[in-house]
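Minutes, project huddle
Topic: does the predicted pose make sense with nicotinamide-adenine-dinucleotide bound?
PN asked that the exact inputs be recorded in the minutes so nobody has to dig through chat later. Recorded below.
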Amino acid sequence: METKLDLIGKVAIVTGAGSGIGQGVARALADEGVSLVICGRRSEPLQETSRLVETAGGRVTAIQADISQTPDAQRVVKAALETFGRVDILINNAGIGGGDSIHKMTDEEWDQVMAVNLRGAFLMTREVLGYFREQKSGHIINISSESGLEYYPGDGSYGLSKHALNDLGEYIQRENQELNIRVNTICPGMVVTEMTEDSPGLNHEKCLYPEDIADLVVWLLTRRPNVKIGTPILIQTMLNPWE
Ligand code: NAD
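Predicted holo structure (tokens), as shared on screen:
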């Protein structure tokens, strides 16, 4: 029995793919023969990811988009359908850190973190789900965080957005699993990326790297369709990266 799905010819959308984990996932998927639609807010990093994917022989379309805005989310999914004629995979990776202790947080900080980390994943998911439900297949992977399982004082809005993202994934899975649509949520610990690399006191040697998360994404995408990997998956460091 074949225990591993082939990804050659599949089409994936990766959000926030201009840097960090999103770029690592885009590169890993291209290596598996997946055609890519990548999106993010900034043009230059997207161009860099496109260059890396194309140099490795992959096919990629880059769309500058803010995934917290409905028309932008619609534009990204439309571009995938127009360019490649299908969508099989959505990686909801785009996210921002931020915030402060709850009592110091401004309305704007709260709204911004929720808009990108939660609403953005919802909007992208809603746009692909109409299509996935019709074709009776599709795989969504949400990049959450260890903060979505823990409670770190001083990081409330980020943590809350990721706790809610975990639950969004559960709802999407339960509402769509009869239609052969799979959802996984990955909760990484500290990964060296733009978001974290300058954090004072962070020991990079004890951190994860985008490739570690990308490997897990590929593993999840290549399970046989009837294999359900439940609950958020925690991938963290053995050693404390702050020591
Ligand atoms: P990163 O800052 O390198 O990547 C985030 C990407 O998302 C950037 O390219 C950014 O331009 C894009 N983005 C931000 N807002 C967007 C928007 N509104 N629309 C479209 N794109 C947008 O950081 P990263 O560490 O690679 O983060 C990727 C994901 O991993 C995030 O969801 C983050 O919360 C999560 N995460 C990171 C770590 C870590 O330690 N780095 C740990 C756990 C989870």
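Observations noted during the meeting:
- The pocket of nicotinamide-adenine-dinucleotide is lined by residues 15-16, 18-22, 39-42, 45, 65-68, 93-96, 116, 120, 143, 145, 188, 190-191, 193-196 (CB under 6 Å).
- The chain has a mean pLDDT of 96.
No decisions taken; revisit at the next huddle.
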